[in-house]
Amino acid sequence: MTKTHRARTGTAQRLERVARRIVSRQGAQALSVRGVAAAVGITPMAVYRHFPDRASLLARIVERGFAALAERAAAAMAHGDSPIDRVRALLLGYLDFALAEPLTFDAMFTTPRPDARRFPADLAAGVSPTAGLFLTAVREVLEADATDEDAFEAAAGLWAHGHGLIALYRAGRFSLDETGFRSFYGRSVTRVLLGFAR
């Protein structure tokens, strides 16, 4: 690796670290090329040597977020003794990530992005690391129950249940504190999964 290449790589990594910090602390709306450049100590034009625009910088942060979520989900699922336990563990890991990184979570799931993955085509194509884990676990549940239910729709419904509860909690629609909400979420997910496994 040449000195110039090392310098370019180092600058790109610093830009990414700063952008990730801005998104995690202030939200995606606070991210700007000018702000990142100022924090790193370079000109805005220099940023464009590494990222063609703000959208590409945000896309990198979002992809890192999905990688972190997938890692957390995989670790949680490793402790599941059965397919249904693994689905529940993934949904609980999803909650953990959402509460630990709320503004990054928003950037990943609620900030409109032209490159956002869409159901069901992108899920079927296997381009989402997190959704891929979830779909595999849901398929295991369906196979264990010998049901012909559509795995994609089943996975979307279960995900929507967990995500919807998190969105309502984040919007202040629960009077529960975080501990209380975690308990409620766990019970609700378990109740839905018991009906799902039937």
Provide an overview of this structure.
With 198 residues, this protein is an all-alpha fold. The chain folds into two domains: 1-52, Arc Repressor Mutant, subunit A (Orthogonal Bundle), CATH 1.10.10; 65-197, Orthogonal Bundle (Tetracycline Repressor, domain 2), CATH 1.10.357.10. The chain is built from ten helices and no strands. The protein has helices at residues 3-26, 33-40, 44-47, 54-77, 83-100, 102-109, 121-125, 129-144, 151-170, 178-197. Helix 5 (83-100) runs antiparallel to helix 8 (129-144), helix 5 runs antiparallel to helix 10 (178-197) and helix 8 (129-144) packs across helix 9 (151-170). It is elongated and about 60 Å long.
Quick structural summary:
The chain is mostly helical. Helices cover 74% and strands 0% of the residues. The longest helix is centred in the first third of the chain and has 24 residues, at 3-26.
Keywords:
198 residues, mainly alpha, Arc Repressor Mutant, subunit A, Tetracycline Repressor, domain 2, 10 helices, 0% strand
Q: What's the main sheet like? A: none
Give the helix proportion (percent range).
over 70%
> CATH H-level name of the largest domain... which superfamily?
Tetracycline Repressor, domain 2
Instruction: Please work out how many helical segments DSSP would assign.
Output: 10
Please give the alpha-carbon distance between the first and last residues.
57 Å
Q: In CATH terms, what is the architecture of the largest domain? A: Orthogonal Bundle
Extract low-pLDDT stretches: none
Number of domains: 2
The CATH C-level class name of the largest domain = Mainly Alpha
Instruction: Please compute the radius of gyration using only Cα atoms.
Output: 19 Å
Secondary-structure content class: mainly alpha
Roughly what fraction of the amino acids lie in strands? under 5%
Elements, N to C (H/E):
HHHHHHHHHH
Mean pLDDT: 88
Shape: elongated
**Strand count:** 0
